[in-house]
Design goal:
This protein is of the alpha/beta class. About 35% of the residues lie in helices and about 30% in strands. It contains eight helices and ten strands. β9 and β10 form a beta hairpin.
Length: about 230
Amino acid sequence: MNQPVVELDKVRRVYGRGETEVQALRGVDLSVDSGESVAIVGRSGSGKSTLMHSMALLDRPTSGQVRVNGDPTSHLTERQVASLRNASFGFVFQQFFLVAGRSVLDNVTLPLAIAGVRPKERTRRGMEVLEALEISEKARARANDLSGGQKQRVAIARALINDPSVIFADEPTGNLDEVTGAVVEDLLFSLNRERDITLIIVTHDPELAHRCHRTVTIQDGTLTTSNATGATA
């Protein structure tokens, strides 16, 4: 039986105060098992991205607890949180967040540079993951010379560079045409299936959500449903 990789216990996230207070998350309880694929769905402004950011340790909750592999994170310093996030999580966003003038290889190995890995090892690992994603021929190309689909593939390679246990994807196909988006979807789900990487996706796309093992619906900062889709990705 798989163990929870990320757990939220009564997590609240409040922005502002007084008349401007916004309760983005209202006491959310959620557990995601290792190797699971989960879609987070809901209307714009429902709290989807805030929920993902809390799970991914990109944003600290106002109250409640986030656990990673069973360990609480509320007591960790910002540096410890950053280290845990860099070691355990990979990120793929609708906006590719590539450094336009730098090479594909430089973009992919950026998390390793931040972690202090030596250049030779960065190059070895970067080329390895680019080859696995069948885009190694673009290693020396500048990121802004790539197509949208190629940029997203590079973003996925960057997400994989630290061998993460979880990939968080926020509208990963939102900037892609239908055909290219389908290729990116297949790539993400093959990583989930073949490498047992936990996949957590924020999406407006019902077809993409249905490919996940489970769909979590959020409304006004509260989880309203958590349903298995029966999908095998």
